[in-house]
Design a protein that fits this description.
Length: about 120
Amino acid sequence: MELQDYFENTGGTGILATSDSDGRVDAAIYSRPHFLDDGTLAFVMRDRLTHANLQSNPYATYLFIEQGPGYHGKRLFLEKTGESSDPALINRYKRRTPTQTDGEALFLVYFKIDRQLPLLGGQRS
């Protein structure tokens, strides 16, 4: 729950980085993750490059930069564990209103956290 509390109470900017099976990298602005009871986290995503990359490479990194002076935040190293296109389930987690999605396909993509590091520094492995 410590990480969930952090994201619920800390303002900032999140970036989700993925790559395809050939290693071509993409990074996109993403809101704070949703934490599920089983310890996994999820993001609601459109069917764009980030989602496409996760079809062939399940690994991603979420970088969160806290608002305020200096450089503070978190780096989460993630592995995709599944996804759902169930509209009722997605609507439970959406932070935007339905009109803001323009009818585009949405997915709720689940991840386990492989490793967590601070924004700056950390260990090498």
